[in-house]
Amino acid sequence: MRVMRCLAGLLFLWAAACGVPEAAAQKLVTVQSRTGVSVPIFVADTGSRRAEAVVLLFPGGGGYIKLREEGGQPKFDGGNFLVRSRVDFIRANLQPIIVDAPSDQRSGDGMSDAFRASAAHLADARAVIAEARRRFPGLPVYLVGTSRGTISVAYLAGALGSEIQGAVLTSSLFGGGRPPVLGAFDWKSISAPVLFVHHRDDACRQTPYAEAARLADRYPLISVKGGKPPESGPCDPFAAHGFFGVEAQTVQAIANWIFGRAFVKEVG
Description:
The chain has 268 residues and is of the alpha/beta class. It has helices at residues 2-18, 81-84, 86-91, 113-116, 119-135, 149-160, 209-214, 247-258; strands spanning 27-32, 38-43, 53-58, 68-70, 73-75, 94-99, 141-146, 166-170, 194-199, 221-224, 266-267.
């Protein structure tokens, strides 16, 4: 709990110093997707920063970050790497949109792995993409996932084809069970550009760095090292698995890839 409060304070000070708006300026939007189902999304206000691409962020775990309003302000659980790094995406001239679990997937932890690979999840994603394009016409749209969120990104990217401009998978869930985990995923099913990002010291058994390295001869890979000593379990966000302490550098490398610029393949 103390870690969360400290990180929230640091993000507030960082946002103020960099001219990035704080949470009060953000927008909580409910997107109607399937019949009787809605998807809450968090649309960050980039302030004076000119966004050049949209990144749809799919958190790990069950993807349920409990987007809500309290006292007229958007609130959500913010420990996940992608969620807490939203300011870094803004600073890199990217428009972050955080995607929460749909309204019919909020029991327990949220979305199952099987749901992340389902036609229902695809329908939800298409509705969110349509909302993103309505709000930010002309901007390319990229899917970015971390940990279990990479299941969403892989299967969605395979189905969406040219409807998106690229897919970024960080701390990919290669193992830990049968499909839809990504150890046996058909990467050729994705026609859009794909980037892998993985910490060399990721100690989570389901997300081994070696599996990402095996794909490096076919897809670009950003390897990350260093950061802060872990303050959570190896599969949790405040460890190498969540790029703890090297978030800003990691996001900047991702942004450089998205924009077609030279990007570092070794962070840290």
